[in-house]
C-alpha cells in the first residue's frame, strides 16, 4: 500500500497529476478540485489509494486523508468502483457525502454521474451505519485560482466527468457570477454539476 506521495508536480492533465518521486514519475488520478490546488513545478504531498486490478494498477491521489477515507469507504457499497467513488468526490465533498447518506438524501447522490435512484438508495442503506456523522459545513477547503483559469479548470473537470464541451461551457457561464475575487474551483465545479443535473 502506498499511503502518500510527496514530490514535484511534473505534469497536470484533465484527470491526473504526475508527481516526480526519486526520479520516477507517478501518475495519480485526482478529482478536479484536487487538481485545481496543484501547480506544475511545485511540491505536492498527496494521500493516496492504490487500486489493483488483474490488468492494471491505478494510484488515486487526494487533497487530504478525509477524502481518501471516504473514497475507500464508498467502494465497500455494492456497485461502487473506484471511478464512481472518484466521481462522488468530484461532485460532493467528503462531508457532503456523509450528510447525504446520514439524511437519506437520494436527490443529492443522484447528481453524481452514474448514480441513479436505486443506486443512491443502496449506497445509503449499506453505508448509513458506517459513514459517521457529518462535521461542520459540507464545503471543501477553498482552492484559490486566478480569475481566468478557473473557467478552464471547471470546464475541463466537467468534460472529464463525461459532459460535452458545449454543455460544460454553458454550465461555467451559469456559475460565473458566484466566482468572486478568489474563485473556489471545487465549489464552482459542484455548482456547475448541479445546473447540469437540473437541465
UniProtKB/TrEMBL annotation:
Gene: ruvA
Region (Domain II): 64-141
Domain (Helix-hairpin-helix DNA-binding motif class) ranges: 72-91, 107-126
Subunit structure: Homotetramer. Forms an RuvA(8)-RuvB(12)-Holliday junction (HJ) complex. HJ DNA is sandwiched between 2 RuvA tetramers; dsDNA enters through RuvA and exits via RuvB. An RuvB hexamer assembles on each DNA strand where it exits the tetramer. Each RuvB hexamer is contacted by two RuvA subunits (via domain III) on 2 adjacent RuvB subunits; this complex drives branch migration. In the full resolvosome a probable DNA-RuvA(4)-RuvB(12)-RuvC(2) complex forms which resolves the HJ.
Function: The RuvA-RuvB-RuvC complex processes Holliday junction (HJ) DNA during genetic recombination and DNA repair, while the RuvA-RuvB complex plays an important role in the rescue of blocked DNA replication forks via replication fork reversal (RFR). RuvA specifically binds to HJ cruciform DNA, conferring on it an open structure. The RuvB hexamer acts as an ATP-dependent pump, pulling dsDNA into and through the RuvAB complex. HJ branch migration allows RuvC to scan DNA until it finds its consensus sequence, where it cleaves and resolves the cruciform DNA.
Compartments, as annotated in UniProt: Cytoplasm
Protein name: Holliday junction branch migration complex subunit RuvA
A Pfam family assignment: RuvA_N
Signal peptide positions (record): none
Keywords, comma-separated and alphabetical: Cytoplasm, DNA damage, DNA recombination, DNA repair, DNA-binding
Family, per entry: Belongs to the RuvA family.
Domain remark from Swiss-Prot or TrEMBL: Has three domains with a flexible linker between the domains II and III and assumes an 'L' shape. Domain III is highly mobile and contacts RuvB.
Principal place of residence: cytoplasm
HAMAP family xref list: DNA_HJ_migration_RuvA
Ranges where the record places region Domain III: 146-199
